[in-house]
């Protein structure tokens, strides 16, 4: 594996890297002027303090700097790992433009080079909790956003049925079911369809598979990669599972303890093996063990209060 990062269409890249299994650890987190392409998301010295001036004032993230490139006709799959409470969801919700995380206390969040004013149709979200509407059928959940946009029923149902199939559900069996009639995996399929049907350029996912059993989780990872190759969006994906991050991510950010900041940036050489097969590969395991050591050092330093 090469010891320098070189995007296939560029010879310019001064960042030193250290190969670890199927990944490479960058010697520093990339800044805007080190990228060739425009950015999708950029954080510039972002700090978020909640409850300013109150006894429970708390700084969740401090001086967060990173930049995600807009890779044409592909998008990049970004995975974010870090100890619980370090500010991962805070960062994701700031990209979404959702309060109270948005706006930052100081610094700037840019999306497609523009300062962010709030949520927008260019960004879609999938959460860990099953966020479907209980009183709506699968079809009406999947087409909810299209309904809000005013798309006529016939047209949106046609699209909705296509997406129900694309996420691996069965139109005939499942379209008129209500969320309480679905398994956790099926509900997350509905959530993914509901988000992707709107064709967001940025897909924000906060531990979407965290509540699923291991087998379902691997199937969902394979499905997500298949869909992502079609939709060509940038994905910002939070997970607690290092295996999941290494399997899914083109790039991984590891956050420090609270107040969180980006500690390490890695890029991962993706392969097209299914999740179950990939996990058996030695180079995959080497990358996982490396990140596990980084994260456990973080946990230890937190326990030691350093
Ligand atoms: N609205 C809020 N008001 C006050 N504090 C908040 C608020 N939202 C988050 N925090 C605090 O900020 C810190 C970071 O929270 P965040 O939810 O971003 O962590 P996380 O990395 O996503 O954690 P987890 O892995 O457990 O989901 C936590 O200590 C949390 O209690
Ligand atoms: Mg969180």
CATH fold type of the domain at 17-122 and 201-209 and 235-303: Rossmann fold
Unreliable residue stretches: 1-12
* CA-based shape: globular
Q: Report the biggest beta sheet as strand number plus sense, adding barrel if it closes.
A: 8 strands, mixed
Overall radius of gyration: 20 Å
Q: Helical region count? A: 10
What binds here, in terms of ligands, is: adenosine-5'-triphosphate, magnesium ion
The proportion of residues forming helix, as a percent range, comes to 25-40%
- Strand residue content: 15-25%
Number of strands: 12
Q: Mean pLDDT, as a whole number?
A: 90
Kindly report the name of the CATH homologous superfamily of the domain at 17-122 and 201-209 and 235-303.
P-loop containing nucleotide triphosphate hydrolases
End-to-end distance, in Å?
35 Å
Identify the CATH class of the domain at 17-122 and 201-209 and 235-303: Alpha Beta
Secondary structural class? alpha/beta
Strand line-up of the largest beta sheet: 1-2-12-11-5-10-9-8
Order of helices and strands: EEEEEHEEEHHHHHEHEHEEHH
Q: What's the architecture of the domain at 17-122 and 201-209 and 235-303 in CATH terms? A: 3-Layer(aba) Sandwich
């Amino acid at each position: 594996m090469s010891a320098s990062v070189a995007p296939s269409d560029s010879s310019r890249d001064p960042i030193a890297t250290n190969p670890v299994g199927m990944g490479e650890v960058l010697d520093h987190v990339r800044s805007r002027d080190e990228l060739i392409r425009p950015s999708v998301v950029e954080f510039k010295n972002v700090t978020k303090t909640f409850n300013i001036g109150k006894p429970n004032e708390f700084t969740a993230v401090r001086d967060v700097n990173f930049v995600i490139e807009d890779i044409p006709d592909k998008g990049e799959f970004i995975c974010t790992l870090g100890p619980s409470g370090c500010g991962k969801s805070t960062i994701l919700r700031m990209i979404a433009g959702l309060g109270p995380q948005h706006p930052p206390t100081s610094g700037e969040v840019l999306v497609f080079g523009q300062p962010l004013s709030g949520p927008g149709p260019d960004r879609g979200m999938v959460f860990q909790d099953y966020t479907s509407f209980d009183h709506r059928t699968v079809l009406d959940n999947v087409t909810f956003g299209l309904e809000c946009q005013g798309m006529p029923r016939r047209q949106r149902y046609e699209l909705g049925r296509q997406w129900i199939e694309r996420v691996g559900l069965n139109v005939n069996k499942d379209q008129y079911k209500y969320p309480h009639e679905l398994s956790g995996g099926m509900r997350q399929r509905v959530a993914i369809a509901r988000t992707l049907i709107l064709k967001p350029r940025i897909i924000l996912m906060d531990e979407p598979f965290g509540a699923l059993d291991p087998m379902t989780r691997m199937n969902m990872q394979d499905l997500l990669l298949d869909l992502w190759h079609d939709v060509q969006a940038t994905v910002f994906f939070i997970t607690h599972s290092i295996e999941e991050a290494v399997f899914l991510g083109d790039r991984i950010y590891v956050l420090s303890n609270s107040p969180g900041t980006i500690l390490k940036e890695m890029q991962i050489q993706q392969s097209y093996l299914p999740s179950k097969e990939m996990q058996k590969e030695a180079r995959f395991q080497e990358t996982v063990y490396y990140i596990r050591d980084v994260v456990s050092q973080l946990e230890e330093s937190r326990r030691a209060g350093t």
